[in-house]
């Protein structure tokens, strides 16, 4: 991110009461409810315990004329404990029915929690399939820092952005970055509209009913906050990088300059990033440019970042770098956001260094001295708090997470030298490819990979509360 997103099972009342209070007997296990949150340091109710999702199949039907979304989510997951019930994060929309393993399931809504009670307990290790039918007019959420996220309407359509919790406004799921899954997203829209999502476009079918069906496939694991759906009258361009990465970009009317500006260098940037950070981690790259003013930020939605209006060169580099750092290597908790933003900001410095601009050392010194001639953002309060310990949920996208996070990386480079530093960066992306990682994982990995004691860097720059000297 850059700040510069069924019918119920009929049963007698007594049987229903027993099912709510006891596990099944006989050949089935004695299950217990899955937790309704993962106790994230900043969003304790985000995510759910007791299972891990393997795959989401989302079938969406949206008409911009009335703003109604009709959806079916098929969620394939594995039980990590014996489950009598489990929760899905889901906000606002009306649930019309739920099945588990093909049988009607009872459910209830409390706030943003959809509690599902299968007809039979789920055994530990069992792979189970939950289907949720839902509809309504999705409503966006307000982040703790005041930003708007979720399903957001545009002049001629809508766009979904989900950092940190907004994805629950358009599909039910396990909405925490620690639970990554593959996705298939099918979107039906009126003819004349484009529907863009993550991954690769498998098919586009013009129906006889005046509607078009787009089927998108994302085989690589994806955190739910990185999922997107953009609907509008976009101009679509496609291509391929010299190394074979597919390119698919969609630009809103009135933002046409985006295609010939910095986004025109996207292929070059992908190749540059592959040289610096290792092979590009997904089958496709691209962009979604929504009308200026739709959002107050860009977001690194997986494989296809969303930009509010024509982006700058630095912004394209930043969101592209997130494909390695944040999308492929994802945080274990929202406290680890500096691993996303520090790396993406440092990538901006490296791009400038490699293309005739200020070096990373010059950027680093500019922030220490407040020299806005070198970097226009150098006068921000980058030392307000340690990047690995933001004071609250409203701070996970604040300046120290970005800029002091980048400075932490440069301090490592100063300590170990270029050869070991860039081996560390490439190794981190390769060894944690499509996985989750924490700050503790990174600090241990950095010391092991470089063979250096970096405790002073961690104590002063990463965790220190005083402004580093």
Report, as a whole number of angstroms, the end-to-end distance.
Answer: 28 Å
What proportion strand? 25-35%
- H/I helix tally: 10
Tell me, briefly, the overall form.
globular
Using the CA coordinates, give the radius of gyration. 23 Å
Order of strands side by side in the largest beta sheet? Answer: 6-5-9-3-2-13-16-15
| Count of individual beta strands | 23
- What is the share of helical residues? 10-25%
Regions with little confidence, pLDDT below 50 for 5+ residues:
3-27
Which class do the helix and strand fractions yield? Answer: alpha+beta
Largest sheet: 8 strands, mixed
Return the average pLDDT rounded to an integer: 94
Cofactor: Zn(2+)
Keywords: Hydrolase, Metal-binding, Metalloprotease, Protease, Zinc
Pfam family, one: Peptidase_M1
Family: Belongs to the peptidase M1 family.
Would you write up a description of this structure?
It comes from Streptomyces virginiae. 24% of the residues lie in helices and 30% in strands. The model is unreliable at 3-27 (pLDDT under 50). 49% of the residues are buried. The strands form five sheets. The protein has an eight-stranded mixed beta sheet with strand order 6-5-9-3-2-13-16-15, with no helix packed on it. The longest helix is centred in the C-terminal third of the chain and has 18 residues, at 399-416. The protein is of the alpha+beta class. It starts with 12 loop residues before the first helix and ends in a 7-residue tail after the last helix. It is globular and about 60 Å long. β11 and β12 form a beta hairpin. α3 crosses α4, α7 (399-416) packs across α8 and α8 (418-431) crosses α9 (439-450).
């Amino acid at each position: 991110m850059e700040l510069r997103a069924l019918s119920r099972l009929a049963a007698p009342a007594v049987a229903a009461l027993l099912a709510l209070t006891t596990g099944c007997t006989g050949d089935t296990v004695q299950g217990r409810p899955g937790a309704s949150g993962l106790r994230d340091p900043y969003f304790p109710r985000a995510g759910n315990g007791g299972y891990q999702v393997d795959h989401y199949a989302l079938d969406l039907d949206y008409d911009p004329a009335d703003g109604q979304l009709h959806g079916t989510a098929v969620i394939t997951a594995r039980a990590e404990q014996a489950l009598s019930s489990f929760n899905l994060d889901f906000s606002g929309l009306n649930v019309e029915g739920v099945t588990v393993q093909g049988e009607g399931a009872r459910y209830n809504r409390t706030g943003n929690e959809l509690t599902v009670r299968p007809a039979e307990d789920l055994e530990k290790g069992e792979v189970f399939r939950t289907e949720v039918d839902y509809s309504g007019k999705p409503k966006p959420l307000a982040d703790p820092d005041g930003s708007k996220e979720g399903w957001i309407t545009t002049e001629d359509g809508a766009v979904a952005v989900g950092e940190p919790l907004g994805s629950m406004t358009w599909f039910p799921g396990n909405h925490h970055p620690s639970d990554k899954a593959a996705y298939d997203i099918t979107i039906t829209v009126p003819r004349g509209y484009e529907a863009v999502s993550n991954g690769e476009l498998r098919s586009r079918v013009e129906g006889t009913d005046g509607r078009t069906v787009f089927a998108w496939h994302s085989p690589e694991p994806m955190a739910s906050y990185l999922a997107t759906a953009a609907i509008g009258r976009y101009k679509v361009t496609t291509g391929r990088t010299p190394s074979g990465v597919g390119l698919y970009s969609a630009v809103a009317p009135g933002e046409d300059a985006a295609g010939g500006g910095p986004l025109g260098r996207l292929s070059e940037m992908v190749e540059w990033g592959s040289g610096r950070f290792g092979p590009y981690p997904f089958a496709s790259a691209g962009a979604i440019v929504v009308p200026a003013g739709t959002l107050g930020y860009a977001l690194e939605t997986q494989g296809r970042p969303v930009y509010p209006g024509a982006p700058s060169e630095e912004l394209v580099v930043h969101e592209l770098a997130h494909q390695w750092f944040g999308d492929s290597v994802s945080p274990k908790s929202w406290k680890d956001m500096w691993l996303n933003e520090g790396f993406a900001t440092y990538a901006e410095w490296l791009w400038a260094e490699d293309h005739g601009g200020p070096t990373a050392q010059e950027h680093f010194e500019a922030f220490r001295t407040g020299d806005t001639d070198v970097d226009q953002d150098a006068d921000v309060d980058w030392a307000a708090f340690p990047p690995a310990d933001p004071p609250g949920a409203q701070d996970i996208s604040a300046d120290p997470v970005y800029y002091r996070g980048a400075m932490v990386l440069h301090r490592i480079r100063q300590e170990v030298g270029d050869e070991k530093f860039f081996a560390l960066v490439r190794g981190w992306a390769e060894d944690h490819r499509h996985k989750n990682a924490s700050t503790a994982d990174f600090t241990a990995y950095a010391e092991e990979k470089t063979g250096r004691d970096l405790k002073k860097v961690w104590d002063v720059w990463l965790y220190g509360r005083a402004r580093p000297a």
